[in-house]
User: Which sequence fits this backbone?
């Protein structure tokens, strides 16, 4: 029973780490992409 508990905790830790990493990388990438489009193409930041 204790091994199953550790396995579940490890699984949740990995899944939480992956989703956090996706947000940490994704949100700044979108902001940089929008600023790039604003500078090069003159598109609004809200589009």
Assistant:
């Amino acid at each position: 029973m204790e091994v199953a508990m550790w396995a579940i905790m490890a699984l949740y830790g990995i899944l939480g780490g992956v989703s956090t990493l996706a947000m940490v990388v994704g949100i700044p990438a979108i902001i940089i992409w929008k600023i790039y489009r604003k500078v090069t193409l003159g598109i609004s930041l809200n589009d």
Notes: The chain has a mean pLDDT of 94.
